[in-house]
Write a structure and sequence with these properties.
The complex is a heterodimer.
Chain A: E1 5-12, E2 15-22, H1 28-42, H2 50-55, H3 66-81, H4 91-96, H5 99-105, H6 112-119, E3 127-129, E4 135-137, H7 149-163, E5 168-173, E6 177-181, E7 190-195, E8 204-210, E9 213-218, E10 224-226, E11 229-231, E12 235-236, E13 241-242, E14 247-254, H8 257-270, H9 272-282, E15 285-290, E16 294-296, E17 304-306, E18 316-317
Parallel strand pairs in A: 16-18
Antiparallel strand pairs in A: 1-2, 2-5, 3-4, 5-6, 6-9, 7-8, 8-17, 9-14, 10-11, 12-13, 14-15, 15-16
Helix pairs in contact in A: 1-7, 3-8, 7-8, 8-9
Chain B: H1 4-20, E1 35-40, E2 49-57, E3 60-69, E4 75-76, H2 91-109, E5 122-124, H3 131-150
Antiparallel strand pairs in B: 1-2, 2-3, 3-4
């Protein structure tokens, strides 16, 4: 008798997590409980969360759960590795540029003076960890783990599926963070489509086989154009403004989902030349979509395929 | 301007939601009562909340509408992205709002086993935001199921 497959979705962290698994019992209830626990720890919107308590601690040391410690430590390490292109202490800018607020109140782009003030309250160097795993944040600064928590959570859910006996699993968190275990039920590698920046959520320009974790950052969801300025949720810590690097979407394959998420954000912010230099230096692999091109890091040449239903030009390999 | 595009994809998305089993809080197999049912999400940080109204006939969703109610009670509905005159003031955002609603169907569709090995298992892109939409939809459908069990129909 073939082993049962399990599939389901649930809402979490402002989006939807979808889990497919085969082999073992249905992992969905346990996955859901785990993600709920992580959101309870990591959401800046839940007043009792570790992150909210840290943000409200007014510069005092705050003890956090081991999960929170793991994500914060990973976030700081990624901020250092990306030279601050990914930064977990951008809360003041995130609030200033809130797309939802701008949509509801029909606001123009933020004023330069307000951007300057917010920038002064940003930067991962404003966050400290002591030897006991407690954290301290400068009083006016705000941690926002929205750029890394989904990647961490997708990995933990994938690990949970394995612990429960699954032989294969595919976890998608909001489509932006994907983690895999083993293979598909037919024994082939999981294959992930990369969304066309000009198309809907199901339209992809290329696809890649995945054993591990992947993250995509793009400027085309949760955004709007106001007074000619494209306002979206990925901010450039150098300028304090929404990124405008020419890269519209960055997909990164990395050893863990949190790192993949941080690097995809960093590459969207810094652009293609910086991104491929980082690939060569660090071993992460990336597919970048610009307005009209698909750029693939050298290590992915053999696993990225062009999707059939696109009129886009062939993927071109990045210069080495 | 034509408001139909928001309503039609939303009805499709709700159908997909039912098939996909997203509403894990309740028992999805319970029948839906005929009538009109409304569900709301928890308020966001600005005090705005999502509200879904579904119309059910013969146990099927035949129409659905999603609106965001702001803190002051005013409604952002399918005019999302349009100005007071009804003109599309912000073409880009208007399209994104339409896409976001239509996209929900994709999640459910991904649960179907892929037969063609050339097909992808999942499509990765920028994070899609559905919090209010999902919550409100679950609440509306749970209300319809509760009504079916109680033998009543929704408010007209």
């Amino acid at each position: 008798m073939p082993s049962a497959g399990h599939a389901g979705s649930f809402a979490a962290m402002g989006t939807v997590m979808t889990v497919r698994a085969h082999g073992g019992p249905d992992p969905l209830p346990a996955c859901r409980a785990l993600v709920e626990q992580l959101e309870d720890l990591l959401s800046r919107f839940r007043t009792h969360s570790d992150v909210a308590r840290l943000n409200a601690a007014n510069g005092t040391w705050t003890a956090v759960h081991p999960h929170t410690d793991a994500v914060l430590a990973r976030a700081v390490a990624c901020a250092e590795a990306t030279d601050g292109a990914y930064d977990p202490v951008l809360g003041a800018l995130v609030e200033l540029w809130s797309v939802r607020t701008r949509m509801i109140r029909d606001l123009p782009p933020a004023e330069p003076a307000d951007v300057e003030r917010a920038l002064g309250r940003c930067g991962w160097h404003l966050l400290e960890r002591d030897a006991g795993g407690r954290y301290r944040l400068a009083p006016d600064a705000r941690v926002d783990l929205g750029g890394i928590a989904k990647g961490y959570a997708a990995d933990r859910v994938r690990d949970l599926c394995a612990d429960l006996g699954a032989r294969g699993a595919l976890v998608s968190f909001g489509s932006s963070s994907v983690a895999t275990l083993g293979t598909r039920p037919d024994g082939r590698a999981w294959r992930v489509g990369l969304r066309d920046v000009h198309g809907g959520p199901a339209e992809h320009v290329a696809s890649v086989t995945l054993t591990g974790s992947l993250s995509t950052s793009g400027d085309y969801e949760q955004g709007l154009v106001t007074e000619g300025c494209r306002v979206h949720h990925v901010l450039d810590p150098r300028t304090g403004r929404p990124s405008d690097s020419g890269v519209r979407a960055a997909t990164v394959l990395a050893a863990d989902g949190a790192a993949a998420e941080a690097w995809s954000t960093a590459m969207l912010v810094r652009g293609a030349a910086w991104a491929f230099a980082a690939c060569a230096r660090t071993g992460v692999e990336a597919v970048l979509l610009t307005e009209d091109a698909v750029l693939v890091s050298p290590g992915l040449r053999d696993v990225v395929r062009r999707s059939r239903r696109t009129g886009r030009s062939q993927p071109s390999s990045a210069a080495t | 301007m034509n408001h139909e595009p928001l309503r039609l994809p939303l009805a499709l998305a709700l159908g997909g939601l039912l098939l996909g089993g997203c509403a894990a809080d309740g028992d999805d197999s319970r029948p839906l009562a005929d009538g009109e049912f409304t569900g709301t999400s928890a308020p966001d940080e600005q005090g705005a909340y999502g509200q879904v109204t579904v119309e059910i006939t013969g146990g099927d969703i035949v129409d659905a509408a999603y609106v965001t109610v702001q803190q002051d009670g005013s409604v952002k509905d399918e005019d999302y992205g349009t100005g007071a005159s009804g003109e599309v003031a912000n073409e880009d955002y208007y399209e994104k709002a339409q896409d976001a609603v239509a996209a929900f169907e994709v999640y459910a569709a991904q649960l179907v086993e892929v037969d063609d090995p050339d097909d992808v298992d999942v499509v990765s892109g920028a994070t899609l935001s559905y919090d209010q939409f999902v919550e409100a939809t679950k609440a509306a459908l749970d209300a319809a199921r509760d009504a079916a069990e109680a033998g009543s129909t929704g408010q007209e």
